[in-house]
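Worked Example 4.2. Consider the chain below.
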Amino acid sequence: MFEPVLLKNIDMPDGHLLSTYEAGGGYKALAKALNEYTPDEVVELVKQSNLRGRGGAGFPTGMKWSFVPKGADKPKYLCCNADEGEPGTFKDRIIMERDPHQLIEGLAVSAYAIGAETAYVYIRGEYVTAIRRLEQAIAEAHERGYLGSSILGSDFNFAVHIHCGAGAYICGEETAMLESLEGKRAQPRLKPPFPAVAGLYASPTVINNVETLACVPHIVMRGPEWFRDIGPNKSPGPKLYCVSGQVRKPGLYELPMGIPLRELVENHAGGPLPGRRIKAVIPGGVSAPVIPESGLEVGMDFDSLAAAGSMLGSAGVIVVDDSTCMVNVATRIIEFFHHESCGKCTPCREGLNWVVKVLRRIEAGEGEPGDLEQLEMLCKGIFGNTFCALGDGAAMGLRAALKHFRDEFVTHIEERRCPFH
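Applying the procedure from the previous section yields the following structure tokens:
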């Protein structure tokens, strides 16, 4: 039976306190890293584990760390992306609210590995409880000597700062987040240069997600072999799945990477609501293309979902049952992306505006022949032509809805009404 690792403290009433974290072996990984490994050896441990970023892209974490130049004459920075703006995603919030020291230890070990002495946690401002818990945890860690100068008697100095965002989805994109941290308008940067070379304040910067950083202390303590033995070899480890929507037991589940989507939804999350059938599942937040009920045998890992035409993304699993209009779902999702577009590039700014207009017309019973072809043409113009992945996510999601549920779009146009409402 799989034993939770990342969520082992979340049900404890005092799981957010340092005393609880230490009682469970907390900060032993930091001590082990400082006493037994050089920074390069910690990077190598993470490389050997095959840990892939849990924020959405799935890029190998150890490889990302290795891109940081060794002889840079500028300070190095570590940034934690805790913005978590993807609809259907709440895993990082739970870690920060109920086990914040796990994140802080992950930050400290990761900063030691890349040679950084300063970290910023970029957190969405609506996460009030998480912000307070992190502030308390940082103060506790400072007092106990896990943060500050000469940590645990070593020559490693490290400080963590919290920066609250203002609720912009685009700040989940790493370079837009860096722009916001610098006090500028949050818009993606043109790459290269990549953040590892010229990131925050034009200095070498590593950006990792909360869940990614939380995995690092466990890899140091248990070894890369332990991590690789969980789930598929190409994307192993424990994984946090956020399940919401029309399902009996929504919640946060820690399970091995690669678990079949059907098993996650029907066994762990209890299946559809009484009297209903599953129509589709969005597997990775609204950026991920929808998967119809017939495709639910797919494994919940980066490669399996990519082969199935979708993506793991943030593992925000949204269940849709047979009472739901997929035209309405597609419209709501594209409205969200249109609203959150930063407006920097024309394909995203103008293309999504036209997509929303056409979808609203179809949903209102005013669709015309040729509208679906126009939507496909607009998706083609957006996909692959934008500064960041926001436009790509919107286009991929709409393409999947048109592919798997085209009959519902056709019915809206031909009958000039929504058959579900």
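The CA atoms of residues 20 and 420 lie 50 Å apart. The longest strand covers residues 238-245. Compare this with Example 4.1 before moving on.
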